[in-house]
Amino acid sequence: MSDLNKLTIAEARDQLRAKEITSQELTQSCLSAIDGADALGAFVHKTHDLAMSQAQAADARLAAGDAPDMCGIPLGIKDLFCTKGVDSQAASRILQGFKPEYESTVSQNLLDAGTVMLGKLNMDEFAMGSSNETSVYGNAINPWKVDDRALTPGGSSGGSAAAVAADLCLAATGTDTGGSIRQPAAFTGIVGIKPTYGRCSRWGVVAFASSLDQAGPMTKTVRDSAIMLEAMCGHDPKDSTSADLPVPNFEAMLTGDIRGKKIGIPKEYRMEGMPAEIEALWSQGADMLRDAGAEIVDISLPHTKYALPAYYVIAPAEASSNLARYDGVRFGHRATLAAGDGITEMYEKTRAEGFGPEVQRRIMIGTYVLSAGFYDAYYNRARRVRTLIKKDFEDVFATGVDAILTPATPSAAFGLGEMTDADPVQMYLNDVFTVTVNLAGLPGISVPTGLDSTGLPLGLQLIGRPWEEGDLLNTAHVLEQAAGFVAKPQKWW
Amino acid sequence: MLDLTYEAPKPKVIAGAKYDWELVIGMEVHAQVASNAKLFSGASTQFGNEPNSNVSFVDAAMPGMLPVINEFCVEQAVRTGLGLKAEINLWSAFDRKNYFYPDLPQGYQISQLYHPIVGEGEVIVDMEPGIARRVRIERIHMEQDAGKSIHDMDPNMSFVDLNRTGVCLMEIVSRPDIRGPEEAAAYVGKLRQILRYLGTCDGNMQNGNLRADVNVSICRPGQYEKYIETGDFSHLGTRCEIKNMNSMRFIQQAIEVEARRQIQIVESGGTVDQETRLYDPDKGETRSMRSKEEAHDYRYFPDPDLLPLEIEQAWVDDIAAKLPELPDAKKARFVADFGLSEYDASVLTAEVVSANFFEEVAQGRDGKMAANWVINELFGRLKKDDKDITSSPVTPAQLGGIIELIQKGDISGKIAKDLFEIVYTEGGDPAEIVEARGMKQVTDTGAIETAVDEIIAANPAQVEKAKANPKLAGWFVGQVMKATGGKANPKAVNDIVSAKLGL
């Protein structure tokens, strides 16, 4: 019964149903792994007792028969999700000690499906970052290592990625505003899917940029993503942007047959200075899909180069407004005031103490681009670019393209601290392949496809048509099988 | 629909030290939508509850909370737009107005800057019979109200009550078509009347459910007409906005005071600064709240948590079909159907409950008489007791019964007033009371003739005088009335006295 934590969701489900294992055993195995992995900085709030009682309930449900697929599966939950009675602070000092009285719709859906919550996972503060280095908890560290260099697990869902890659949980929730699921998935050799905007409810997820934020699963396999996504998503009347669409059985759509599918290779994603290894991986990925019977076509997404600047106007603009509620008045951190301080001082001190530098930077950028006199030059222009980017994809899909293949990241995981002194824009470039998908509201998935010369995982991204996650997962499944990625990080923690 | 014709009133002219000046006034009226729940949350809107008891997670802006539109508030806004003969925008959208204040938990107010739900409409503001101002409505949008900050409960702390946070307001924006303080008050009054007819706002100004921001500027006579002709605001003076007025009296006072302040500045060679001001009723002055330079940059942008609000024409049509009769139409109908004066019709239609009461009284009876009785007797009596029509002890059926007794000639007008007082204080069926208490008029000519004969026989000297001067016949009528305890039919007495005296 050892190493149950290394199971996939699908394996564990089958063994739970076959009564070969219990959820309590599975959960205990994960909890032990978590306790031995503090060095990874992945779990920032552990909920042992809650987990064991949920596992017990799951076992009862499994014993009664007819339990859902996810029943008894232990998960990690990103700290961005509000979880009832459990610390939920978006990795920010400003929400220190905040225990919500409500459960986010996505985590509630997972609880309803019988899953077990092991605890809360590290992330970049308010999901703003690509390296997990902006977290108030400190870095999460990539279980993959080259020499003695500590590497980033990516961000913002860095804790989720590290935890899944290190087998601390069977899977984790992530959120993705500009690549925060797909980039860390690629950096840690796991699968992460950002569903179509509106597929998962945003209710109870701490907002970063409302028009871009979307929750999704981070798992060991594509099949696991299919199983978990089905349990997470669905229409939520509490979120006006949630789509009132039926949820398909995604796993059943993993036929492994992509014959006749048209896969687009966008020429604009062939960036200058792209590492040869990434380039090669991309071509190999295309070859694998071609070998599986898909048709590979060259396509153009002409406005791609404007995506990153537009994203870094729109996301901070929305964030500057979304984060206004953290003012020290009702919950979270409030600065100690000096005699004579008034409300302005309370705001200024509270927010200066509560928000880290990256969050402050984005609030300032967002405030600037929305301010009178600059609004048209920045925000309105960025919105127009967004419309054009969306249209780029629509035009391509209108020609019969089923999915688009791109690299997930411009490089493998980089060293922690390596970007600290760099221009923030260098860090923002990590999102170059992923932000277009958020701007267009499309589903995108990162699939581990190979290792670089130093032995670090690399991922490819597949972008699908809106609401066709099932089809996208099937293509990703084919790519995953063809790539045969089975490497695991060497345990050093 | 029936329309009463009217002429525009003359604009108010204020004589300065050097010139005559006219006023130009536009208003933004904030009307709290009558609904049980808030605009974007299910929390109650009940007034007067314990502080912070009408607060949901959404209202408190807890992390991850999202707004969901309350369809009934949308319906109320549409109904209001239809009531103001305005165009309804089937596509509208919500924007965020960003600013920091402790009673604004989200750090932004959700409003409709760029695409309001209601477009151009109008309000006919009656000033006196035949005289009314047509005030154009520019737009109506929906927005969230803020909470309440309380600064005077503790020397070191401020308190916040979020009960009001997120309650739906309609902001009704007029064009600068109002030309004097009285018109401004009348405009608010008319708007309030229409909203109350529609049931979209209770109009309670004391509770702050209806409040107005007043934009005031001054100009020389003739300039306003140039503005109307060209639409060019440069013909008008610089405006100041007086914020948050919640009484008609203060609105009038503030406008008057502000206009005189501006005249004084301009006549002494200065220029009026565009700014936001507050009216202090104790000191009788307006003072600067913030200048144009200090004005907030609200960083409006479309709220990404809400999809554009799309409504269907059929839904709007359905609301339109169920719209109640509005004050102007009702007034015109009362004039046409009941032969009332425009003044009486105005009084009766001021509140829909009064109008309904009147209509019930007047149904199948003499309309004018019904109007007189409702306005003079009933309203007068209620006022004496500090009551309003909703707590009237006299029902329309009872008042109608009294009027019927007069119309049939069963009682005189004088007796009727006594009867009214009995019904008012004791209740009961008027006809039964008249019967039981012997208040019925004597119309039996035989009995009256007997009485007349007796009095003539007893007063030969008076008979002679009356024959010489027929005006003195009134003395005999009075004596007969006295002898019959006031119950004799005065007309019958008159006729018989005249006949017997041979006049």
Q: Layout of SSEs?
A:
The complex is a heterodimer of chains A (493) and B (503).
Chain A: H1 9-17, H2 23-35, E1 43-46, H3 48-64, E2 74-78, H4 105-112, E3 116-121, H5 158-165, E4 171-176, H6 182-188, E5 191-194, E6 214-219, H7 222-232, E7 262-266, H8 276-291, E8 295-299, H9 307-322, H10 343-354, H11 357-370, H12 376-398, E9 403-407, H13 424-428, H14 435-440, E10 444-451, E11 457-464, H15 469-483
Parallel strand pairs in A: 2-3, 2-4, 7-8, 7-9
Antiparallel strand pairs in A: 1-3, 4-6, 5-6, 5-10, 9-11, 10-11
Helix pairs in contact in A: 2-3, 5-6, 7-15, 9-11, 9-12
Chain B: E1 13-15, E2 20-32, H1 71-83, E3 91-92, E4 95-98, E5 108-111, E6 121-128, E7 131-144, E8 148-150, E9 159-161, E10 168-174, H2 181-198, E11 210-219, H3 223-230, E12 240-245, H4 248-267, E13 275-280, E14 285-291, E15 301-302, E16 309-310, H5 313-321, H6 327-338, H7 342-349, H8 352-362, H9 367-384, H10 396-408, H11 413-426, H12 430-436, H13 445-458, H14 460-468, H15 473-483, H16 490-501
Parallel strand pairs in B: 12-13
Antiparallel strand pairs in B: 1-2, 2-10, 2-11, 3-16, 4-5, 4-15, 6-7, 7-10, 8-9, 11-12, 13-14
Helix pairs in contact in B: 2-4, 6-7, 7-9, 8-9, 8-10, 10-11, 13-15, 13-16, 15-16
How would the global form of chain A be characterised?
Answer: globular
Task: Calculate the terminal CA-CA distance of chain B, rounded to whole Å.
Answer: 53 Å
Q: Which pair has the most extensive contact?
A: A-B, 43 and 30 residues
Average pLDDT over all residues of chain A: 96
How many runs of DSSP E, i.e. beta strands of chain A?
11
Averaging pLDDT over every residue of chain B, what do you get? 93
Strand proportion of chain A? 5-15%
> Count of helices of chain A?
15
Element-by-element helix/strand order of chain A: HHEHEHEHEHEEHEHEHHHHEHHEEH
Distance between the termini of chain A: 22 Å
Order the strands across the largest sheet of chain A as they lie in space: 1-3-2-4-6-5-10-11-9-7-8
List the domain count of chain B as a whole number. 3
Q: Characterize the overall form of chain B.
A: elongated
Quaternary arrangement of the chains shown?
A: heterodimer
Number of helices of chain B: 16
Low-confidence spans of chain A: none
Residues in helices of chain A, as a percent range: 25-40%
Task: Tell me roughly what share of residues is in helical segments of chain B.
Answer: 25-40%
The strand count of chain B comes to: 16
